[in-house]
Amino acid sequence: MIGKVFIVSIFGTSVLIGWILHGPLGDKDPPTLPDFYWGSTDRKIQKEDRSIRSFKINIDEKILTDLKTRLKIELSADRLTVPLEGIHFQYGFNTITLKKFTNHWLDNYDWRIREKTLNKYPQFKTLISGLDIHFQHVKGQSKKQYKQTRPLLLLHGWPGSFIEFQKVIPLLTDPVDSDTNFELVIPSLPGFGFSERPPRPGFGPVEAAQLFLKLMKRLGHNKFYVQGGDWGSLIVTNMAALYPEHVMAVHVNLCMSSHSRTHMRHLIGAIYPTLFLSEKDVARLYPLSKYFSNLLEESGYFHIQATKPDTVGAGLSNSPSGLLAYIMEKFSTGTNPSWKTKEDGGLIPYYNKDDLLDNIMIYWVTNTITSSMRFYAEVFTLRTLGYKMDNVPVKVPAGCLYLPYEISGHTDFHIQDKYHQLLSFSRENKGGHFAAFEVPDIFSKDLLKFFNLVENNSTIHKFTE
Amino acid sequence: MGKLLIVSVGLLVVFTAWLLYGPFGDGEPPKLPDFYWGPKTKENQKEDTTIRPFKINIDEKILADLKTRLKLELSPEGNRLTPPLEGIGFEYGFNTKFLKTVTTHWLEKYDWRAREKLLNKYPQFKTSINGIDIHFQHVKSQSKKQYKQTRPLLLLHGWPGSFFEFQKVIPLLTDPVDSDTNFELLIPSLPGYGFSERSHRPGLGAVEMAQLFLKFMQRLGHEKFYIQGGDWGSLIGTHMAALYPEHVVALHLNMCTSSHPRAHLRILIASLYPSLFMNEVDIPKHYPLSNLITKLLEELGYFHIQATKPDTVGVALSNSPSGLAAYIIEKFSTWTNMEWRKKENGGLIPYYQLDELLDNVMIYWVSNSITSSTRLYSETLTKREFAWDLDRVPVRIPVGCLSVASDFASMSEFHVKDKFHQLISYTRSNKGGHFAAFEIPEIFAKDVLNFINLLEQKAKPRTSEL
């Protein structure tokens, strides 16, 4: 009697576990995607323009004049509310610090000089799926010989831009201690900066993955590497999951997975965290109450952008101070969340004001803050969720740069359900969300380490075929 | 078998006791210290208890600056609004095509001085409470009609509203046609809103405002009074009723909610079999829960950012008239009728008048109070505020609820029973949204009058004083 009960229980439990692991917690196959098209219908009727056109940033003087006018108005008719007594960045961007930035923006920041620097590397535009995509395309400058030169796609996120990568470009095109060097492709995401915005709903992180595959193919690259942070991390991960025959390896600096087994590991790990994780890692993820309350405190922007981007976009499109506060707050909290207790949010002198303003200007001169925020609204839709990409594993080699102040705390233990060949997981003690911008040396060193690891692994290396 | 029954009953009793007296139990009102919200430098000065007449008279410079900014935002070179996505109305927020209609009207047709006159129609005053200047309208009966009793009634607005919401109901309450009772109205602006001074230090949340408004009523010579509120006004009024039952005689709400721990239980339990617990009419508003949760997620983005980073989002809103108009008026669309999200004009025209909607936006603009107004969210959603544990303190005085047709924040009669022990009136209207007094003033006033008259009749015969 007992024997039968025992056998049935074991069998029943196995079936249940099997169902859980292969059903709701199981891996999924990549979806087949239709050929997306984002341009206007009359553009489609014309033969698609496949030309790759040279591009240089040259902002119309009228835009710069209008900006100066608005800054002057905002600084003279001061309508900012002073912070509460004793408060610095805990309620958001400190308006006393804000004035320091806007004064500098009006009086000292010289766009034409910055523009020259931003035009340093070759830029182009080309129509992909009906959208004009802006990108930098940079090859090795030096005469140094490398064993192999690999195409590498670098993807930014929000509220960043292609400018985040400027300091790592020479470190990757002309590395000092590496067999491999890279031919860099650094686009602006559609709706960000100089890339055209999608005119209708539906352009999310899966659609973006297809678009960037097409971009690489347009440039003659059938096989390539990808790297991304923030939304870039999600998009390159999608590319690696969808197109393993094209994406040879993927590196991310936002180590995160939304695989259902990852969530399970995170939640169940709460029972006995140190059983699976080091003390340091535990501190970032537990207790769960602290983890979620921190997440809630920092995700207000995410929530409003995912639901009402056009509402909040109206003010941000019209007020330079407003745009500065909104974007730069992330450079404070995203670099180090404890900086909320500082009156300057830790920004001065950690970051160069002009470097920070370059990024704001990309959004301002192209007037893309609203379209950039719409991306959030496209992520949490039934359509995007319907692709079920979270549980589609990445089987190609993957590497993650795990920085101490990045928002996600997922470790290699957590993300291995998503990245089946996690060859490299680097724990550093410096840096936050904007890795390439903040710690370019650590960032490029890790990329070189990872991609050389991939190159030297003869069992997996498949570039030449 | 008998043992099993006894143990089961025993467990049930223990469970019920735990439910009623443990973590889901009622609580006692806390004792609040005497707060001060003024600047640190003036903290030790004696409080100015004068009540000073006030008239809105906005400096011409502010109006000129506003016109300059609007002109800039509407000029062909300065037009920076992103067109809506193809086929989209208000689903991604305020439709920028319609926004231009609003701001064009604002620049070319809206006449502030004429509107200012209207807003100055009833007597206004300012008085300092807890160190900050509180603006309010104080309106008594205009007619010679005799009423059995005249009661003081505190009307509290919320966000993104203002005292302007009550203008149409004022005459309906000071001089009602079919009522034994009429009201002496006190209509303040919440601290940090409109012409009321903002707090200078952290800590002024909804609970602290409850103390402030008790002192306010006492300053005006009223130890006993009625309260009516919606939005934050509903929460503050509820706190006042829970904290000061000896002062608040009755409470009327057009947004009836409860955060009592057992309210959450009720919401969950009723979801299992709604028709067993609730009035049929109320069910589709709350169930299935998945619908409600989706709606809340879709609509609470503003709440989330204001509860965490008010100073960040406040910068653009303080500087861009288009930005402020979009941010505030979006609520007048979606919170009046959620179906209007599909419409290019958000259903706002011709349902509302642009001038009225802009009156409200102007109150925020000319007083430059959008940032301080949003801080109420971050002050109320804090550990400090939750520690007062006021949610579990029941309201024992009579309460009347006006349940409008579409206010996603409202709860049904079944849900609020643990909080409102004397819910003597629950009216279901098939009209109206969140801004009830503004949108359906007759229905609103009628319900307040019905509720109060019901109470007045029930009360034992005594003198006309409360």
Q: How would a crystallographer describe the biggest sheet of chain B?
A: 9 strands, mixed
C-alpha geometry of chain A? globular
How far apart lie the N and C ends of chain A?
Answer: 62 Å
Low-pLDDT runs of chain B: 462-466
Gyration radius of chain B, in Å:
23 Å
How many helices of chain A in DSSP terms?
20
Side-by-side strand order of the widest sheet of chain A: 1-2-3-5-4-6-7-8-9
Structural class of chain A: alpha/beta
Short description:
The complex is a heterodimer of chains A (465) and B (466). With 465 residues, chain A is of the alpha/beta class. Chain A is built from 20 helices and 9 strands.
Question: Can you give a write-up of this model?
Answer:
The complex is a heterodimer of chains A (465) and B (466). Chain A is of the alpha/beta class and 465 residues long. Chain A is built from 20 helices and nine strands. Chain A has helices spanning 2-22, 41-45, 61-76, 95-107, 111-118, 169-173, 205-218, 231-242, 260-268, 279-285, 288-298, 300-307, 309-318, 320-333, 353-366, 369-379, 382-386, 412-415, 435-438, 440-456; strands at residues 52-55, 123-128, 131-138, 148-155, 180-187, 224-228, 247-252, 394-402, 419-427. A nine-stranded mixed sheet of chain A has the order 1-2-3-5-4-6-7-8-9, sandwiched between helices. In chain A, α18 (412-415) links the parallel β8 and β9. The longest helix of chain A is centred in the first third of the chain and has 21 residues, at 2-22. Chain A is globular, with a radius of gyration of 23 Å. A nine-stranded mixed sheet of chain B has the order 1-2-3-5-4-6-7-8-9, sandwiched between helices. With 466 residues, chain B is an alpha/beta fold. In chain B, α3 packs across α14. In chain B, α7 links the parallel β6 (225-229) and β7. The longest helix of chain B has 20 residues, at 2-21. The N and C termini of chain B lie far apart (59 Å). Chain B is globular, with a radius of gyration of 23 Å. Classes of the chains: A alpha/beta (465), B alpha/beta (466). At the A-B interface, α3, α11, α12, α13 and α14 of A face α2, α11, α12, α13 and α14 of B.
